[in-house]
């Protein structure tokens, strides 16, 4: 019998096993049995050939409609042209050179699977020398039926394949495997299987490869999705339970402390959301176990103020707090903003400081030697109650006296090792507050951040103005001219503007290029260093303009931001370095050039830099993307709503869910293949509920060894670490 651990060399032979190993990274029977079809063709619903694109690698189910053998003009020999169709009216030509013998098997009327790259010659689409597998028209009369039995049913599996290992070769290997395969004992607890009406694992694995009916295929997929969701949720619930039981240091609120005095001095009222989230965090900090909380908040919802109040509570309790920011611009911005909020409370030891207050210290890589020594001394001896910094906080030599709270801003900008390095600087596990202004769909939060308690700030503070967004078609000169005019109008009204470019301009690639989910354009993306002189000399001549990007020296970046914040610049031409944290209330208009080069969430983040004061904000999305294209539809969606959670769903649709689940983070083969974070929300919620109940009753799954082993196989240790650290 063949088990999941059996090497494929023992099942398929050395040559075939080597091909599967080299081209698809399949080594064992378990790897192959979990290599699921990516779709199923149906005899009665054939692939629409009209949807094919040139240069696309395809596998088609089609019928031979015509055959023609003719001599080649430029050289000796002949060419076989086989016309295939799918019943939709569209056809495709398959060409074979000096292979006239194929005419005997590629007979008119025969159905087959054809695989190859779509090319175009003289206006006609074709496949040059495609691989193919013919299907038996009548299994009872065809002696070759056994060879192609896999394709004789109504549902034909099409596998993720490679050029050297086409889908029908994989199907044949799976059929060979299934003849001797002994499924493992079902790891799903019987009570869960019965309650959720799940089919057995053995039946599910057989039916997903060789479905007897559409209903059987649905039940097989449903069961295997449950396995994936249940494994992830069990991992996260276990980790949350362990974190809740881990020893930590309670940091309760103090009466008449810094937090109370800070609140009393605020010039505005907290929003209801800020008060509620603040109470949740305060309760977490008061417990003798480390807090692990995710704070989601729309751009401008006041997350930083919530974090400052949490940090003051920890300082009141005798500890220190560290705020980790992804860039020097953002760290400096946070430092200035928190300094202004704390006032004398953050300048203890200075002439104008409050002797009962604390010290706020900035630690970045660009600090001079003397300033760095002074800052590190304040951190080490505990005088600095609140420390704001970049990756420099992680370096050796940065030592805290009593680190009680780590606040991570824009957590997705840090690697898991970096976040873990800061936590390791505490004597006991510190409380952790992770903040993001990128709204996260509920299922992603439940699946990727499921070991964190989640708080959401959706209410904007009073006085914040709405932001209107419009798409500016780059091929309409009248619209483009009106864009520059609109910026001038805002400046004449006493306001300021951002012009955002996808690239710095110092080379073909740079550190601040947008994510690769944006669609490619025909020309290079616009760059800051190229756009700046054009604005100064032509489009915005006469205005005070400067640039900001990540490759500038830190002191230059700081000087530019100070001038812009002080109102000494009218227009700032920048890259995505301004994406998060930059807060200049007088900025009312943003023009994003080549907006189709950016992802949905990034566009939403960028436009949050305007409308932060009392005047309405305007975001103009410039793009040459054609109307009706996917890129233009993405921009229209951003322009149509400021609901970040709605946009996050659109963003998720355009990303590979394997990346969200961490498969690309570990670089390993992932067994999380079927679960969709968009379509399977109900299933994920059910799996979460069952996982919570099971772990509550049996934290280590000691009564379910098969389930524990299954979880370990589906969520390996590297991926479990990724899920844990978020």
TrEMBL record:
Q: Where is each Helicase ATP-binding domain found?
A: 284-457
> PROSITE patterns from the entry?
HELICASE_ATP_BIND_1, HELICASE_CTER
Keywords on record: ATP-binding, DNA damage, DNA repair, DNA-binding, Helicase, Hydrolase, Nucleotide-binding
Q: Where is the composition biased (Basic and acidic residues)?
A: 513-522
Q: Where is this region: Disordered?
A: 504-524
The record's section on InterPro entries has:
DEAD/DEAH_box_helicase_dom, Helicase_ATP-bd, Helicase_C-like, NA-bd_OB-fold, P-loop_NTPase, RecG/Mfd, RecG_dom3_C, RecG_wedge
Which GO molecular function terms does the record list? DNA helicase activity; hydrolase activity
Ranges for the Helicase C-terminal domain?
Answer: 479-653
Task: Kindly give the NCBIfam families that the UniProt entry links to this protein.
Answer: PRK10917.2-1, PRK10917.2-2
In its UniProt entry, what is this protein called?
Probable DNA 3'-5' helicase RecG
What is the native source organism of this protein?
Actinoplanes hulinensis
